[in-house]
């Protein structure tokens, strides 16, 4: 008894844990009072599960097919966690930290960091596919966080297996939109007690960010309100999030929202938002949109709220208002997929490129679309397919940037049943094969890893694809459309993109113009207004002028969202969008970011003017020179300057 008291007064967790190890070895039981309560309970469970200190670590990974399947089943979690893991890994690079993501059963999905730097055999058990449950590895941060469902730090000898007592590990659970356990994020460094608290804060911050990202992506079609009692915490990982449906019913909340509102998830979920805010959802949403945020004085707390996510069907939300236009479903559907004629209607140069692309695709020439984000690359790809000879065959789109690097190959080429021990029954048909006879759209092709570019080139040359793991080759008959926002020629120059592949993909190149240089803004506006159900609505000249001056970094996608918001603000019977219907933050953005006002943009504007005029004159340089009152030589010189 006196011994325990003494060691508690001069508590050193590592020494305490070492003593607890010695006692356990001597007595065969976990001694009480030596370890922190969470660790003691975990040691008890480990012992009960039959794990012993000296048990070897499991270092062999499962078969490749199981690994593929594991990653495939957790693709969303992996992609949402990737940026946070990357950030964490850079932050702890100096400390030789390894960042680990595991699933809800403590099986490792992904590891960042150089395990050789940890200089310990134990690090070789930190590979994807290896399970770190308490049953397999005794007390460890991943397995214990899964059991406890809360953050855990395990330092040195607090681990159960001798083989991992050289590590300090900090894990925190990652929860899904309904509070269910999705996985665990962990930071493993060499054992020391000094930094572990700092590690915990960093890991928790990263885990909250991942959860918030998952939350936002899960409720893409709903309104998401972000809030906090302190404004400086808005837009941070600690903000509360609530997703509501079109009737204003709470669909889900994140952990921080429950803490801020001091209520459990069960108490709040499925309740009307009015029960919390005291305001009808329509009033609240309209206020949030109009004022860029509101402060709510609730009974026991002040909440600063922002509308984080704008529901696509906002007009449906303000359902008491008459719909602005009553186009038939069919009309709506057809306007959802503009034709290439419509896309290029008032843009001769684009129209010509699109006509050539359609001819090309019908003769099996690949098409390469290039344009900034939101310029309509996917819209064009679909239009080309819909009007091609393959229109009744599949259109398969793959975003190369959204798939984890290790999975792109199996995603594109598939793998065979029996290709690997334990491979999935029926294997997996790759996207190439899915698109056979139809069109394959490879978006963000500029992000394809170099190693895979070689394989892609081979497939395109041979027009055959063999699933991973060998097996029969399948003849391919596909139209290929690729897209990128990157400058592929620069990537080629930098050796980041294979030159031979570039020429293979660039059968017909189509440059999609940025919105700021398009001469058909009015036509696009009327098209987009129809798409958002407001075909009879006009746009005030002053707003049009502002739109013409603005640089539109998000291009057509951004314009579409601005119009949706403006339409939602129209009062009943109102038929004109004026400056009053634009949100304050967009008006600020307009004045700060008009392309004629930006520093250093005179040259850009000049070149845009030349390009625009060239478009209008269908590429005729003499006509352009005459229209602008400058010489042909000046036009060539300025275009060369731009290229340089
Ligand atoms: N010609 C068009 N007419 C009407 N809407 C369009 C047109 N082009 C694009 N859009 C709309 O703009 C948005 C962005 O289009 P899309 O996804 O095709 O762009 P993208 O260039 O592929 O973007 P990213 O590079 O970010 O993937 C979509 O909502 C789409 O409906």
From TrEMBL:
The keyword ATP-binding applies. The keyword Nucleotide-binding applies. Pfam families: AAA_lid_14, HTH_8, Sigma54_activat. Residues 343-568 form the Sigma-54 factor interaction domain. GO terms for biological process: regulation of DNA-templated transcription. It comes from the Bacteria. InterPro entries: AAA+_ATPase, AAA_lid_NorR, GAF-like_dom_sf, Homeodomain-like_sf, HTH_Fis, P-loop_NTPase, PAS, PAS-like_dom_sf. This is Sigma-54-dependent Fis family transcriptional regulator. It comes from Neptunomonas concharum.
